[in-house]
């Protein structure tokens, strides 16, 4: 373990205290903005009122046009009313993005410096930071250079435990083998809980892990085994950032968690968009490329994706409006960028990388996954940028999409093509306001009551007042 971070950095204590005082007494930029607006708002009201009194003075001094005066009087009063109404509306209804802007608070995160066998060593394989589960790498990397990172664990609200578990790719099929995940994580927890006091003092409740593969912190690729094994005892009290999310009760989300998108490389999206802009020509009407097994799988009474995919294939293969392909193709992003609708049926687990790529490339995602929970619903207004089709209605897909195309397709596309939507689902190597790592931070800032430090601070404040 890195010697530098073992002990409380007493040398720098003065600096931290200063910073804290500044946070306490200084005015934050957002507050300043608000104050400006407040001043401005008062000015307009004041001006309008003076104008009103001045004009009514003029009017009442002119007795010859009594009838007109009343009308003018009414007009002015209503102008003032609507003016102040529009001002107060402006004040209360801002878009989710602007609301969020003010709400990262003073979040502080301490990132454990673990020995390289827990993380960096895995990067020897370049796929580790680009594949579908690479958010475990991307979030760690972005946090290291982020403003919310603190080197003083005593002022941290949360503790990030950077263990990469998805990069042990099978030599047989290239899929991540996650059999070692539980032991790797528990060994990391053993290490931090003996070397530092922070795990024990909160029993891990302010510690954050990433579990970006199929069934999140259940760490198994088969759902029935994942369900049986459940979330490891050691993580049960912590916060897990996971792609897995369903609206019903499921053992693999019985932990405080944030649903995050799977990793899609922002560079690859940028490159594709250079050749195929979102508002460019879309000559494919409905697109899907992926596995379409013929035999549906019955797990715990729930028919998974395979059945939906089978229906799609059987019913629409041969329909000229549908562009369906069963085999891998490296250039599939350009196909998405050329399509109006992109089918996002449930994958192996109830989330889909296609969803992120469709949104990023401006193809309207058609979500066919009953009871899925989508990532960052506070930032991404999913019902406004996608079409949802119930699994049982999949055979009517053609009809349903025709109806959308004839009614509200352009509205959906306009919402979808807002660059803020795409941004929220992509993990950059540095945190950008509004991007996926930023959304994670925002979600954490709303869970600050789980933080040992923050609960102490608020108790202290209660005591003081
Ligand atoms: C990686 O996975 C293989 C099985 O595919 C396993 O034998 C090996 O021990 C794993 N490596 C580590 C470092 O856990
Ligand atoms: C935390 O608790 C564990 C188990 O009780 C113990 O082994 C460990 O030494 C404790 N850590 C510290 C820093 O006291
Ligand atoms: C699916 O599984 C459930 C319970 O595991 C069972 O009751 C049901 O009969 C199965 N359905 C089929 C078609 O095999
Ligand atoms: C588009 O129309 C469909 C019905 O055809 C409706 O279910 C959906 O909510 C509409 N979406 C938007 C964003 O207006």
Automatic annotation (TrEMBL):
Chief location of this protein? Golgi
**GO process annotations (BP):** glucuronoxylan biosynthetic process
Instruction: Give the UniProt entry's GO cellular component terms.
Output: Golgi membrane
Task: Mention one GO molecular function.
Answer: xylogalacturonan beta-1,3-xylosyltransferase activity
Q: What InterPro entries does the record point to?
A: Exostosin, Exostosin_GT47
Positions of transmembrane segments: 40-59
**Chain ranges of the Exostosin GT47 domain:** 105-404
Quote any Pfam family the record assigns.
Exostosin_GT47
Q: Where in the cell is it found?
A: Golgi apparatus membrane
- Keywords assigned by UniProt? Glycosyltransferase, Golgi apparatus, Membrane, Signal-anchor, Transferase, Transmembrane, Transmembrane helix
- Catalytic activity, EC: 2.4.2.41
**What membrane topology is given?**
Single-pass type II membrane protein
Recorded family membership = Belongs to the glycosyltransferase 47 family.
What name appears for this protein in its UniProt entry? Glycosyltransferase family 47 protein
Q: Which organism is it from?
A: Medicago truncatula (Barrel medic)
